[in-house]
Design brief:
α1 packs parallel to α7. The strands form four sheets. Strands 1, 2, 3, 4, 5, 6 and 17 form a seven-stranded mixed sheet that branches. The protein has two domains: 181 residues, 3-Layer(bba) Sandwich (FAD/NAD(P)-binding domain), CATH 3.50.50.60; 113 residues, FAD/NAD(P)-binding domain, CATH 3.50.50. The protein is built from seven helices and 17 strands. It is of the alpha/beta class and 302 residues long.
Length: 302
């Protein structure tokens, strides 16, 4: 017989862990499934998480998963191939292993980052090269930083980084973006130089980037680099189920984090807002509360 749960949480990052934990605490039969390919795997530490000082992401996941299991939820390390059905009768189909049913679904499937293809970058990614200004901007306070990007939105990224340092250089890696006049004026106003040369390679030691080598033979020293290219949804499952999303694949949710598909909820990076781990955990908790409320029997509602 097909196993049936009250709640199926898809995605085992902070949002999914919190959602599964609180669903189990509400005595809902809960299963957490995770492909175990976290977005923040290269990151050395999660910053600003209340009560935990710069905890490595794998350690936060380990602690969270233990809490989820101790609360009574189940965990399966699987890749979900599809989700189908409707409220009170969803069916989750892993690529390997048996399918199961759930009355409610919580998507905590996150985002996937496009990473610049620059030789040497992966040697420093997560230690002195980052993509998230909210998460790692404070680590660059007062430092010489380069910001890699070439979309019109990259200037807004530079303006955000001025919160922590005014020693900024914009690196467009061979691209010449058509920046609107207000963007060009902002770069000039804050004396942010733009280098359009292609970056040939990055060098440094022990995870600390030190120098950008350009294709024309020139070099420049930096203490840290940030980049902003493209973020795409970490999973096509919400879209396949029919959940409403914007042009970037970010899901629309209501006050209880229910998507446009009744009975399907979403939390974390796949919804609108900052991409902080602590915010994702808070959203997972809010979604679990919404799910719990939706499952209270009519005879208990007064």
């Amino acid at each position: 017989m097909t196993e049936r749960f009250d709640v199926a949480v898809i995605g085992g990052g902070p949002a999914g862990l919190a959602g599964a934990l609180w669903s189990a605490r509400y005595r809902l039969k809960t299963i957490l499934v995770d492909a175990e390919r976290p977005r923040n795997a290269p990151t050395a530490a999660i910053h600003g998480y209340l009560g935990l000082e710069d905890i490595p992401p794998e350690e936060l996941r380990r602690i969270g998963r233990r809490q989820v299991l101790n609360a009574g939820a189940e965990f399966r390390s699987v890749v979900v191939g599809s989700v189908e059905g409707e409220k009170d009768a969803f069916r989750v189909n892993p690529q390997d292993g048996p399918s199961f049913e759930a009355r409610r679904i919580l998507f905590a499937t996150g985002l996937h980052d496009a990473i610049p293809e620059i030789p040497g970058l992966l040697d420093f990614y997560g230690r002195s090269i980052w993509h998230c200004p909210d998460c790692d901007g404070p680590s660059a306070t007062g430092k010489r930083i380069g910001i890699i990007g070439w979309s019109p939105a990259i200037v807004a990224y530079c303006m955000m980084m001025l919160t922590w340092t005014d020693r900024i250089t914009l690196l467009t890696h061979g691209h010449r973006p058509a920046l609107p006049e207000p963007s060009r004026a902002a770069l000039e106003r804050f004396s942010i130089p733009v280098r359009h040369q292609e970056m040939h390679r990055l060098t440094g030691e022990d995870g600390q980037v030190e120098r950008v080598h350009f294709a024309d033979g020139s070099t420049e020293e930096f203490d840290a680099l940030f980049f902003r290219l493209e973020c795409v949804p970490g999973s096509s499952l919400p879209g396949s189920l029919g959940c409403e999303m914007d042009e970037d694949g970010i899901l629309s949710v209501g006050p209880d984090h229910e998507t446009s598909v009744p009975g399907a909820y979403a939390a974390g990076d796949v919804t609108h807002g900052s991409k902080l781990a602590i915010r994702a955990a808070g959203e997972g908790t809010r979604a679990a509360i919404g799910i719990h409320r939706s499952l209270i029997p009519p005879e208990r509602q007064v």
